[in-house]
Backbone:
């Protein structure tokens, strides 16, 4: 049989009635990517990230790094596992972020005396200064991200996102 790799042979006994010319089943023809929740969430996140990068004076600080720093500020001497849970960042990604922040002198990472496998995170004095200096910008970023919404829509958007974020 002569066929291209990755393609299944056509089956002449398969009915094609009701299928559009492109071969997709008719019931899927109304699927529009730009109307799907995943697409819209990704676009909203891209917009927020662009606003964050434009508004934050530290061009090396990402929104995810800022989330880690503020979580460590709020929960000093937290184990990496707890920071991962509170930021919703997977452990492997968080380790890379922590390494970058440590190299910049923004975080202290020490072994837990009770469990040597655990790493405890705390802000360095420079990390504390950075977080405190960026918080006013972060508030403004939230306002800019929500700028297209009226007050009622803002409350609704936050509540819907909270519900969607729950497991």
Residues:
């Amino acid at each position: 049989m002569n066929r291209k790799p990755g393609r299944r042979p056509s089956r002449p006994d398969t009915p094609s009635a009701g299928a559009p010319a492109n071969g997709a089943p008719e019931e899927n023809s109304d699927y529009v990517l730009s109307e799907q929740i995943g697409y819209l969430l990704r676009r909203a996140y891209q917009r927020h990230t662009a606003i964050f990068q434009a508004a934050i004076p530290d061009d090396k600080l990402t929104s995810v790094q800022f989330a880690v720093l503020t979580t460590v500020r709020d929960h000093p001497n937290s184990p990496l596992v707890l920071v991962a849970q509170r930021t919703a960042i997977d452990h492997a990604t968080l380790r890379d972020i922590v390494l970058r922040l440590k190299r910049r002198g923004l975080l202290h990472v020490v072994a837990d005396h009770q469990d040597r496998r655990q790493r405890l995170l705390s802000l360095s004095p420079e990390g504390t200064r950075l977080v405190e200096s960026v918080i006013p910008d972060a508030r403004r970023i939230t306002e800019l991200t929500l700028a297209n919404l009226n007050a009622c829509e803002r409350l609704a958007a936050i509540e819907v996102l909270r519900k969607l974020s729950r497991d």
